[in-house]
Design goal:
alpha/beta, Alpha/beta knot, Helicase, Ruva Protein, domain 3, 2 domains, 7-stranded parallel sheet, 10 helices, globular, S-adenosyl-L-methionine, Alpha/beta_knot_MTases, RNA methyltransferase, tRNA_m1G_MTases_N, SpoU_MeTrfase
């Protein structure tokens, strides 16, 4: 079972080290950084110092250029977005929602310290996790947010003594869904169903629909076949 923590656009080396420490005490070690401010952030002294003994998590961590690379092999994407969006995935607290994900391959996404998560990244997720805080002060340090989510996920998994059962059906990973939708977007433009100059929210809505459907790899293959057929029909000038 995959549990991955993804930090997007992180700007402070200390937060990376503190995140590694927060993960290790809850028994997790799959850390991926997407386009951090510093290319050598995992080796910076501040990161090593704040890891406080969790250096093996830093040693195993990966730096990638895109979110697609970071979520490869994952079924469910959980945004951590404290600010409500007018559109996007359902919002829930970790304690309410995480028990429903036991047995799935899960990635927890955290935005930059200054700006949080971008709307387009939140739209890709299956759920937006919100941590209950005081009404007049809801600002959480990045590593503190990681610690809370890691703790709640460990509780959902049954602590350290209970192993979750394997999922009965393996859904296609998030990268496969994103690639299929890119193929569909090209086809929808080709048949003039989607106007690239005024796309509105068609593609984010389709992303949410397929996230809910949780298609298998075989179903992704079929959907790509449909997109290919649409593109071929458009080239021939047939309806």
């Amino acid at each position: 079972m995959t549990t991955r923590f993804v930090l997007i656009g992180t700007s402070h080396a200390g937060n990376v080290g503190a995140t590694a420490r927060a993960m290790k005490v809850m028994g997790f070690d799959d850390l991926v950084l997407v386009a951090p401010r510093w290319d050598d952030v995992l080796a910076r002294q501040e990161a090593i110092d704040r890891a406080s003994g969790a250096t093996e998590v830093l040693a195993k961590a990966r730096i990638v250029a895109t979110l697609d690379e970071a979520v490869e092999g994952v079924d469910v994407l959980c945004a951590t977005a404290m600010t409500p969006r007018d559109f996007g995935p359902p919002t829930s607290t970790p304690r309410e929602h995480l028990p429903t994900l036991v047995g799935r391959r899960v990635a927890f996404l955290f935005g930059s310290e200054r700006y949080g998560m971008r709307n387009e990244d939140v739209y890709r997720c299956h759920v937006a996790l919100t941590i209950p805080t005081a009404a007049d002060y809801g600002s959480l340090n990045l590593a503190a947010a990681v610690q809370l989510v890691a703790y709640e996920w460990r509780l959902a998994l049954g602590g350290f003594d209970v192993k979750p059962s394997a999922p009965p059906v393996v859904a296609a990973d998030a990268k496969a869904v994103s690639g299929m939708l890119a193929h569909w977007e090209e086809a929808l433009v080709a048949i003039r169903f989607l106007d690239p100059a005024a796309p509105k929210k068609l593609m984010p809505r389709l992303h949410q629909m397929f996230n809910r459907a949780q298609p298998t790899p075989e179903e992704i293959h079929i959907l790509r076949g449909v997109a290919k057929a649409m593109l071929e029909a458009a080239k021939k000038g047939t309806p």
